[in-house]
Amino acid sequence: MRMLAALMFVCCCAAQAVTLPPDPSAVEPYLATRERREPGITPGAESAVHWLTGQPSRTPLAIVYLHGYSATRQEVHPLAEQVASALGANLFSTRLTGHGRDGKAMLEGTAAAWQADTREALAIGHTIGERVVIISTSTGGTLSTWLADAEGSASIAALVMISPNFEAADKALYLLDWPVVGPLLLWWFGEGERSWKPMNDAQARYWSWHYPWSALVELTRLMKQVETIDKSRITTPTMMIYSPRDQVVDPDAVRNAFEQWGAPRKRLVAYERSNDPSQHVLAGDIVSPGSTAELAQTIREFLTREVLPAAAPVATAAAAPLQQDSDGKSM
User: Fold this and answer.
1) Is residue 219 domain-resident?
2) Is the N end or the C end of the chain the one with fewer CB atoms within 10 Å?
3) Contact yes or no for 314/86 (Cβ under 8 A)
4) 59 is in which domain, residue-wise?
5) CATH number, domain at 276?
6) Tens digit of each residue's pLDDT (9 = 90 or more) over 19-41
7) Is the dihedral of CA 293, 254, 149, 234 positive or negative?
């Protein structure tokens, strides 16, 4: 695994003309240099490592968190932190290109850049831990699907996807990438922005809630690319948590992807107790604080029982039974 981490980091950093020794103590200086390349990052949105012991040292397991489109690592905070602490793991939360800044910075994000960010996140995960579990939300799930297909199950111990974006609920979004139609729409929108109203000051701070319409083109291209992946090839143990009432991504697409998923150890959980009016951000202090502990426990139990049987049990608060599809668990 140390050799794997070294090779992955060399590949990721070579593309950026940066060399980082595969050693935990070098990760934070590397991230500080990396983040300085993008000006105006909101404090608290930058890529960050949470060390289990408070000091840079490798743990048997590492958690990597991939946030969704227009969001940041604060999206479901502190869910990933709770899971990492319960499993004795270091945590790395990345920041996708163009995110965590002003709305116009979203134009800097491309499918290729986000895929490079995702590969880098996995490489950092292997630097800070022997095995890596990826937790993602929304488009972070799109990227982790792409990564699992590209890297194979040997590199990733498990995937946990919250509201994975396999297809947008708003089908008109796909028109932006159509030949002729897409450019015409963008010409019509001109300098206009897509915008929505944040729930509170914290969401306004840590989400890009207004950005140019043209920034969405790369998102549609990423979704279309992942749509073509043969998901029966993905054998990484996987948990998908979604709401049947999600207004941002298509719930049917989540169920369809789960059915196609090739992993012999997989679980689909339908969850409908989020505080989020759109039923998309299912946990986190900012949007859905009431469900964070419950979902963190559910994720921990899945990873402990079906992926990491050697993990030491950790006492957590009791949670009410989750609502679940009839095909919610497949072994």
Assistant:
1) no
2) C
3) yes
4) 2-170+230-330
5) 3.40.50.1820
6) 554 799 999 999 999 999 889 99
7) positive
